[in-house]
Amino acid sequence: MIRIAAYMATFLLSFVVVGGIAAALWSFVESWKRTKREGEQAQPGLLRNEVLSTLSVFAEVLKRLRHVERLQKSLAEADLEWSVGRVILMMLVAGTITLNLLLRLDFIPYFGVWVCALAASGTPVFYIRRKRRLRMRAVEETLPEALDFLSRALVAGHSLPMSLELLAEEVEPPLSSELRKTVDEYNLGLPIGDSLNNLVERLPIVDVQFFVSAVTTQARTGGNLHELLETLSETIRERSTLKGQVHAMTANGRLTAVILSLLPIFVGGVMMFINDQYFAILLEHPLGKTLLFLAICGQAAAYFVINKIVDIKV
Description:
Blueprint: H1 2-38, H2 56-63, H3 68-77, H4 84-102, H5 110-121, H6 123-155, H7 160-170, H8 175-187, H9 192-202, H10 206-221, H11 225-249, H12 251-274, H13 276-284, H14 286-310
């Protein structure tokens, strides 16, 4: 009975995924034809495409789901031109493929197959988060030099908007693209304070928040902005140095997590090599399969817990 229910669930998931792929291909073809008729624009637009899905029915369904807005914000921060509908479709495809493959294997327990399929369906979200983290790290590394350049531009007599425009042309991406958006918003009539606040929304980094707060506070109270930017740049460099020291001090903990995670696998391999019959019960008996799968899950959970402990925020 359980096997029949598994086959029915697999069939339903496969049907949903195949239907979604067909609908996505049809939508892509129609969009390509429409783009070809209208002609492509060489310059990218200032406004980001906020469509949840190219399928209107699917988009209406997504509007009623929770966490869709957070996923859409993560896509924007990772600078991925994906729609939320595409991400959900990728999650369904990854989960269904993993489920169909693991159901044909005998050494994984039944509930473990569904756990692995659920974990595989989350790989697109993990990729988005990793892409976002790398992009934010690149901005943090570029920001001190950018503040020094901005300070020198102010000393040379340029206004703040003009200095930001010069900085957008000189600094490396991804900071250059975000500064270009800020300058474009100001040129279209948005006040410089609101443009900088939008920059904070697109780059939710503490250092960027310090920069915007310093500029807006100086605009209200007055003062020497270029000296303030130099001080802020030095502070950011000191924070970066402190983060490097903390990262070096916690390297022992991260190495411990790797060793403790790989040690049971090494011991199990040695046991199989020395006496395979002694270890075979874990691969043949249903209870042994369950215990082995739970042990693997426990090792993975311990690895992430140890890394979370040694991940000290500065």
